[in-house]
Structures are given as C-alpha cells and as structure tokens.
Amino acid sequence: MTLPPLPQPYLPPLREVINAHGLFATKALGQNFLFDEQLLARIAAIPGALRGQNVLEVGPGPGGLTRALLRAGANVTAIEMDPRCMAPLAELADAFPGQLTVIQGDALKIPADSLFAGEPYAILANLPYNVGTMLFTNWLSGESWPPRWTSLTLMFQQEVAERIVAGTDTDGYGRLAVLAQWRATPKIAMRVHRSAFTPPPKVMSAMVHVTPAAMPEGVSARMLERVTEAAFGQRRKMLRQSLKGLPGALAALETLGIDAARRAETLSVAEFVAIAQVLTPA
Ligand code: SAM
C-alpha cells in the first residue's frame, strides 16, 4: 500500500533561523551545526522508513536534523541542553503539530527508556564527541537485552567510528569494538566531511548505525566489560599478565584452549565472550 504524501510546511533556511535567534555556535556545548538539508535528509534516512516511528533525537540544536526527521513523518522527542534552542524548536513543533516534544536538559541524566511510554524507538544524534561516546557506552551496556531502542544512528569523529567497527588484530580494535559488536551490529553508514559543519571541526566525522543482535546466553555484560577492561588495559602484554588480576581468568583461558601468550588485540569478539561466559556465575 502506498501511503499518501506527508504535508510539508514551509520552513525558513536554517541559517536564517540561526541569525533570527542569535544562535552562534558555542564551543563549550560542542556545537557544530549542519545546514545542508540534503545531507540531513540522507542522515535521517539511515535507519529506514520513519513514518509513524518514535525517534529520540539528542542535541537537536537549531533543529536541522529534527526537521529532516519530522519531514520523514517521525514522532520525535528531542533532548537539548541549550536554552537558546528552545524558541526555534518550538517553531518547528508548531509547524509539525503533534510530532515534536522538546525536553530541555542533559541527555546524560535522562534515561531514554523513561520516554515513549514503553514503546520502541530509534535514536539519532549529532552530539559533541565526548557526550556521544558516553551515551553510546550507556546504551550498549545494560544487562537487559534486547534494548528498547531499535537502532542507534550517531555521528562520531571518524577515528572513533573506525574503533567501533574495528576487526580483531587492527590498531583500532579494543573495548569499544567488543562492546559494540558482541550483541549488536555496527556499521559506518556515511562519512561526513568536516566542511559540512558550521563551524568546521578539526577532524572528519562519520555516521555509525547500530542494530541490536542476539545476545549469547549466560554472559553478564558487566563481566565481559571486566575482561576487556583488564585485557586492553595492558594491550601490549600477554594475556597471562593482563588477566592475572581477574579471578578465574587464567583457568578460563586454559579451559577454552586460548594461548595465554596471546595479546588482547588478537582475540576475536567471540573469544572474549567465551571467557566472560566461563567467568559468569550460573
Ligand atoms: N543536531 C544539530 C545539528 O546537527 O546541526 C546540532 C549538533 S551540535 C554538534 C550538538 C548539540 O548537542 C548542541 O546543540 C548542544 O547544545 C547539544 N548538547 C551538548 N551536550 C548535550 C547534552 N549533554 N544533552 C543534550 N544536548 C546536548
């Protein structure tokens, strides 16, 4: 069935919105805005069709990505810290009645699952890199799986994006890769040139798209974290050295036939999971 086209209200160019509200970018809030509406529409399309879907957007700023999400027909809840953005976001809410709820606050302090009345939701964000990495880690760390979010579509600096998707035995491979890959599937969906942002950051960026996958049985997320923390805490050392402080870990290597002379970066995600499985109390 083909759905009827969505009404598309007129919206002024984003640069006009910025000027009208005196929204010059603030470094302290990690503000690098995107104005290219075609690029924003491509980013909003990464998670797939959003019509009628719940979306959590973190850090909407003046609302560039928000308008792309609203135009795609999503029901958006947006969390933004900067009070100066409330007026332009209220204008967007008026232009798309019933589609946009704005919460002024710190996304690090608002549990995403408390929103959307228990319904599933997709998460999209172009965030300051430090906040983005912290939220990403939180969203992937819970013991309960699958999560209520259906996908994460997040902007990272390119080097962090590479670390998230890194394979075994590469420079970027580490705790972030294992966290992102053991029960989810991350991919780099789009590279974004620094010149696309105003002001341009020093480094290149990339959109990472993550969908939840099946969780291996009998593994505590916290235990896996302890194993990777110990192993990559001394990544150049052999496992017999880096894991010796973790009770039962060396015996687990023996049980699994993993050579204790190997280094953390040579272990596959599945091998890390197997170690955590042995160490997780039944
Ligand atoms: N999404 C807009 C865009 O793409 O043009 C703005 C992106 S800008 C890189 C990041 C936005 O996140 C800013 O508007 C900033 O105020 C907001 N922000 C920073 N830290 C935040 C936090 N802890 N919680 C919510 N919003 C935050």
Structure notes:
Strand 3, helix 4 and strand 4 form a beta-alpha-beta unit. The protein has two domains: 14-212, Rossmann fold (3-Layer(aba) Sandwich), CATH 3.40.50; 221-279, Orthogonal Bundle (Helicase, Ruva Protein, domain 3), CATH 1.10.8. It has a seven-stranded mixed β-sheet, sandwiched between helices. The protein has a two-stranded antiparallel sheet with strand order 1-8. It is elongated and about 65 Å long. The protein is built from eleven helices and nine strands. It has helices at residues 14-20, 37-44, 64-71, 86-95, 129-141, 158-165, 175-181, 221-233, 239-242, 249-256, 269-279; strands spanning 33-34, 54-58, 75-80, 100-104, 121-126, 149-157, 184-192, 197-198, 205-212. The structure holds S-adenosylmethionine. S-adenosylmethionine (SAM) binds at residues 29-34, 58-61, 64-65, 79-82, 85, 106-108, 126-128, 131.
Short structural summary:
Helices cover 34% and strands 18% of the residues. The protein has 11 helices and 9 strands.
Helix content: 25-40%
Q: What's the number of structural domains?
A: 2
By DSSP, the count of extended strands is 9
The assembly state of the depicted protein chains is single chain
List cofactors, ions and other ligands. S-adenosylmethionine
Principal-axes geometry comes out as elongated
- Named CATH architecture of the largest domain: 3-Layer(aba) Sandwich
With helices defined by DSSP (H or I, 4 residues minimum), what is the helix count?
11
Instruction: Give the rounded overall mean pLDDT.
Output: 96
Q: Beta-sheet strand percentage?
A: 15-25%
